[in-house]
Predict the structure of Glutathione S-transferase family protein.
Amino acid sequence: MLVDGKWTEDWQPVQAKDAKGGFVRQVSSFRNWITPDGSSGFKAEAGRYHLYVAYICPWASRTLMARKLKGLEGVIGMTAVDPVLTAQGWTFGENADPLHGATYLHQLYSRADAHVNGRATVPVLWDKATGTLVSNESADIVRMMNSGFGNLASGPDLYPAELAPQIDALNDRIYPGLNNGVYRAGFATTQVAYDEAFALVFETLDWLESMMADGRKWLLGNAFTEADIRTFVTLVRFDAAYHGIFKCNRRRLSDYPALQAYLERVLALPGVAETVKISHIKAGYYSIKTLNPNGIVPLGPDLPWARDLG
Ligand SMILES: N[C@@H](CCC(=O)N[C@@H](CS)C(=O)NCC(=O)O)C(=O)O
């Protein structure tokens, strides 16, 4: 936790709770925007921006997927932090930060703002030209990658104007029910908060299963959109992590045939498999000491679709 630019408290998964003991996610603090013409102050330029991610993190993985699908790998550099959370949060481990030689991710936050407060989260989109943090909000970063890089980007439009209302409606349900829902189950500090989060997670999975069971390819039919990215990053972690460490164990994802098939379809898209590292996902979630004091990482489950993933 950063207070006035200094790391002051050991890392804890939950630092804010609601009245019922439910986990409250911090609001992102850096919300600048990259545009093709630079009118926002951040011009799209090849080699200017760098993305910091953790392969364990679903929010960071959204941005990794968008970077792949929009053909931006040669335009935006990328560094992954170590999967294991330490007392000082994310560390660069053996692969020191290539831009500044930082040891901890929080050092980038205080470099960008000497008086910064709050948690040092991934993803981080860094601007090498001005030496600052452009954004630490994955939803914004995905949209910037989709439309902020002009001709430098390629691939499908992940947020087409004609589908925007439908995508927004899906996002509004998938975020609380699934993406953040699993965290609210896992990080609940009271039974009632856990029970509520658990019920919502499975209600949301049941709804998605019935939607995909009509044979559609993607959530909105033939168009692959950011709503698919948001859904996939949670589904791909479900059996390996959330079913166990977050106690989301009414059913496994593999008990949902349409969702399991959908997961494998997304995974087969060019480049997507490279954004998924099951070993990091397991090592990372099972390193959260308040949930797993001895740090033992389970050997199972056997996930046939994940055998070739890192
Ligand atoms: N709103 C952020 C959330 C990012 C987030 O919570 N990332 C987690 C990893 S999954 C993190 O870095 N947590 C470290 C912490 O909370 O101290 C986004 O979507 O970009």
